[in-house]
Design brief:
about 170 residues; mainly alpha; f41 fragment of flagellin, N-terminal domain; two-stranded antiparallel ribbon; 3 helices; about 60% helix
């Protein structure tokens, strides 16, 4: 078979065009700092890059969730320590109130102290996190769980009715 000059010329032009295209692609890779610019450059590598990007995002989310959970647990632990301290103070006041040598004014002072501790416990039960969510409200974090209970020392009670769905 005979090759004409024009065919030989066209073959060389096509080869030079392909080499220029390859060179332009290499320059683009060098300037961007990326080996894969399009999925057609390396389909397997592009698929792996997509998977790695997804895994990286998931790991970042896990890290954020871990930090949030740790912060929440630390706040809950501090609040529960305060609750424990307040309950210990209530117990101490109740034991002190059983002293037969106390006067009525002493017992009234103890009752006022216990009422203050009760108010403190309600405040602790309604502690909010940095987002304004109540930390002891479970899945209804935006809803206040504890309500103030009014009690007079004559024995009557005014608060949530049993069975109405509100905490006691």
């Amino acid at each position: 078979m005979r090759i004409s000059s024009s065919q030989y010329f066209n073959l060389n032009v096509a080869s030079m065009s392909d080499q220029q295209s390859t060179l332009a692609s290499m320059y683009q890779q060098i300037s961007s700092g990326k080996r894969i610019l399009t999925a057609s450059d390396d389909p397997l590598g592009a698929a792996q890059a997509v998977q790695l990007t997804l895994k990286s995002g998931a790991l970042a989310q896990y890290s954020t969730n871990q930090t949030t959970a740790l912060s929440s647990l630390q706040q809950e632990d501090a609040t529960l320590s305060s609750v424990s301290s307040a309950l210990q103070s209530v117990q101490t006041q109740i034991v002190h109130a059983g002293d037969g040598s106390l006067t009525d004014s002493d017992r009234t002072a103890i009752a006022n102290t216990i009422q203050g501790l009760r108010d403190q416990l309600f405040s602790l039960a309604n502690t909010t996190d940095s987002n304004g969510n109540y930390i002891f409200s479970g899945s209804r974090a935006a809803r206040r769980r504890s309500r103030t209970i009014r009690h007079n020392w004559a024995g009557s009670f005014s608060g949530p009715r049993p069975g109405c769905g509100l905490p006691r």
